[in-house]
């Protein structure tokens, strides 16, 4: 891949930023979407849209920007990476502010559904390589007390990936669909998970221990593995862990 176009959500930091760096280093074009902008993404092939993904009423603006970029250049591969995620609420459900629950599900589940719908529609007739990626988590399979909204959003995204994978499977120029579990990565999301008190977040000890035991991976290394997964063919809609790469 070198004339590829990648729409990546959550590129201001963490895994999304590291993945955008990797994708750009390979010669591709990236449109990154997040509220803040990374200082490290300086390439002329990097485009940024400052956007709050909780504002689903304006979501078509993202695809307008995609069109602005891809309609003026020839691309041999297009890829949507649904990476952005909220952290809060990290509390038992009766203590979760309703607004936090709703915002979290918008960013983690509804926006990926909306973007996937629009992205597949835009490129449905294009006879090029096409992929939709969901950055998921082992939390989709493991119930974490105090992180019910995060776990449920990830479980939902895995099922969504499976359904879309089956829809695309027998199309002549269908999209490849994959959900990727990055493992535990040293980002601000992990920092937020372990910064809680045990009264606030029942599972905080697990995240503190993992950090203290040096189990967190470096985002650049994880981005390399994600890129390897993107370069290879995957079983449609499957969940792939970077640990398998
Ligand atoms: N780190 C881990 O250990 C780990 C483990 C499993 C799965 N994951 C998954 O990996 C993905 C990336 O996580 P990360 O660890 O890199 O997290 P991170 O460092 O906290 O980065 C999250 C990204 O999402 C963006 N974002 C959050 N809220 C947003 C909003 N309202 N509008 C637009 N963008 C928003 C942030 O940008 P702004 O704040 O600038 O808007 C940021 O770029 C997530 O899906 C996460 O669930 C991470």
Describe this protein with a few key phrases:
Rossmann fold, 16% strand, seven-stranded parallel β-sheet, single chain, 7 helices, alpha/beta, binds NADP nicotinamide-adenine-dinucleotide phosphate, 245 residues
Can you describe this structure?
The protein has 245 residues and is of the alpha/beta class. It has a single domain (4-183, 218-244), classed as 3-Layer(aba) Sandwich (Rossmann fold), CATH 3.40.50.720. Helices cover 41% and strands 16% of the residues. It is built from seven helices and seven strands; from the N terminus they run βαββαβαβαβαααβ. A seven-stranded parallel β-sheet has the order 3-2-1-4-5-6-7, sandwiched between helices. Strand 1, helix 1 and strand 2 form a beta-alpha-beta unit. The radius of gyration is 17 Å and the shape is globular. The two termini are 18 Å apart. The mean pLDDT is 97. The structure holds NADP nicotinamide-adenine-dinucleotide phosphate (NAP).
Blueprint of the fold:
Elements lengths: L3 E6 L4 H12 L3 E6 L11 E5 L9 H11 L6 E6 L15 H26 L5 E7 L12 H22 L6 E6 L6 H7 L9 H9 L6 H13 L6 E4 L4
Parallel strand pairs: 1-2, 1-4, 2-3, 4-5, 5-6, 6-7
Bound molecules: NADP nicotinamide-adenine-dinucleotide phosphate.
């Amino acid at each position: 891949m070198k004339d590829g176009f990648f729409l990546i959500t959550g590129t201001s930091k963490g895994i999304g930023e590291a993945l955008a760096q990797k994708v750009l280093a390979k010669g591709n074009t990236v449109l990154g979407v997040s509220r803040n902008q990374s200082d490290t993404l300086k390439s002329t092939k990097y485009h940024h849209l400052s956007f709050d993904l909780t504002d689903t009423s304006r979501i078509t603006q993202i695809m307008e920007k995609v069109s602005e970029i891809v309609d003026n250049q020839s691309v041999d591969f297009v890829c949507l990476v649904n990476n952005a995620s909220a952290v809060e609420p990290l509390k038992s459900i009766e203590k979760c502010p309703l607004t936090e629950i709703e915002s979290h599900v918008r960013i983690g589940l509804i926006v990926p559904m909306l973007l996937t719908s629009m992205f597949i529609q835009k490129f449905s007739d294009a006879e090029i390589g096409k992929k939709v990626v969901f950055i998921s988590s082992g939390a989709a399979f493991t119930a974490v007390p105090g992180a019910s909204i995060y776990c449920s959003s990830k479980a939902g995204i895995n099922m969504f990936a499976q359904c879309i994978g089956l829809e695309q499977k027998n199309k002549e120029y269908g999209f490849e669909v994959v959900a990727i579990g990055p493992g535990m990565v040293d980002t601000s999301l992990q920092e937020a998970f372990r910064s809680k008190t045990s009264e606030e977040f029942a599972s905080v000890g697990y995240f503190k221990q993992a950090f203290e035991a040096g189990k967190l991976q470096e985002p650049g290394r994880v981005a390399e593995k994600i890129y390897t997964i993107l370069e290879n063919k995957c079983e449609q809609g499957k969940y792939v862990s970077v640990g398998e790469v």
